[in-house]
Amino acid sequence: MSRTRQRLSSPEHAAALGGVATEPTRAGEAAFPARISVEVTNHCNQRCVLCPRQAFTRPLGFLDPALFERIARECAPHGTRLWLHFLGEPLLHRGLVQMIARAKEIGVREVGLSTNALSLHGRLADALLDSGLDRLECSMDADDAETYRAMRGRDHFEQVSRNVRAFLERKRALGRERPVTSIQFMRTPELLASLERVVGTWRPLLGPRDFVMTIEPASFGGAIAVAGAAREERPPCRWLTSSLMILQDGTITMCGADWDAHAPLGNLRETTIAEIWHGAELARRRRAHEARRFDEVAPCATCTDWRLADGSGYRNATPR
Ligand code: SF4
Q1: Contact status, residue 297 vs residue 288, Cβ threshold 8 Å
Q2: What is the C-alpha separation between 249 and 224, in angstroms, rounded?
């Protein structure tokens, strides 16, 4: 999950997050999600150890572009940001560039996505540069081939490094500022030990608004074992009042911790985003959180990912 959350130290980072609140209409409820993650596909060409998708029980597939059109049309008037990624590799969707361009044409405020960059080359890379895409997050996660293979389950380090470098060089040659591009690394002990070298490698290639980002690994509701500092007081989860997830088959869920959709809120083929956002079930979950009765919402009872909902898991390693 390129989910998404860091210290809100730049607009680009904030845009990538679900935890950005908008004008509330009732206590704890924004008029519409500030951000929606749209899983354009849950197919992938890598096998990352920090991703739970190997344990999917839900089907694999690709988002219907007609459904995406509905999402974009409903979101545009609200200024909702769309992040076209959840568990899967968005560049595998053959209609991706057209969907991005269509969203921008319709007036979606900001469109971004996260990619493992394996397919970020040739005509697809050029088309993405021309698509209107606002943000591109390139997940590297390693600074050498051995660590990369251990993290991502594939020997793609050289190819991915080459792709990202070439993309940044092409963007610079074209004089483009967008998509604002980040090079992302999971904040592991190994990464922190070599962070200075990592930044030194990538900084010369970055455009004025590009950056290196480190990200705190998420547990995906406990599916992945990650270290998490205990916190005495648990607040209501901010994702319940700021964002939604729409999966490739139209299923709507409340957050990335419900990555296998065991507590869906509905399906976009049968309803609208507004109906889900203002619906009884999400209201019930928000009330339970406000009352600190977290065990009344199944995925929330044992979840620790709420810690990342304030954006603190994402950090710019190349601040200016
Ligand atoms: S507490 Fe966890 S499961 Fe509940 S809404 Fe927040 S991130 Fe999702």
Answers
A1: yes
A2: 24
Spatial separation of the C-alpha atoms in residues 318 and 320, rounded to whole Å? 6
Backbone dihedral angles phi then psi of residue 196, each to the nearest 5 degrees: -60, -45
The answer to whether the CB of 81 falls within 8 A of the CB of 15 is yes
Rounded to the nearest integer, the mean pLDDT of the chain is 88
Q: How far is the CA of 233 from the centre of ligand 1 (A)?
A: 15
What's the gap in Å between 297 CA and the centre of ligand 1? Answer: 9
Strand spans (E) along 180-313: 180-186, 211-215, 243-246, 251-253, 266-267
Lowest-confidence region among 24-38, 182-196, 222-236: 222-236
* 257 C-beta closer than 6 A to ligand 1: yes
Tell me the C-alpha distance between 91 and 167, whole Å: 14
Q: Contact, 259 vs 239, CB < 8 A?
A: no
The CA angle 287-4-162, to the nearest 5 degrees, is: 165
